[in-house]
Specification:
The chain is α+β, with helices and mostly antiparallel strands. It is built from two helices and three strands. Helix 1 crosses helix 2. It is elongated, with a radius of gyration of 14 Å.
Amino acid sequence: MNGFITAQEAAEKWNITVRQVQSLCKQNRIKGAVMLSRIWIIPEDTQKPTLNRMVRNDEEK
């Protein structure tokens, strides 16, 4: 489909896993992402969203 890429292609482009892309799509964090049948399609000009990861504090007592 012209103008769109798959979750697999986005994962390769953004250097993250396909599962992370799918999760971002499901959380509506990728603007314009749409699920067609069972495949996420993403506008090809979309920028990688920031990944909000929890930081573990190993210094807790």
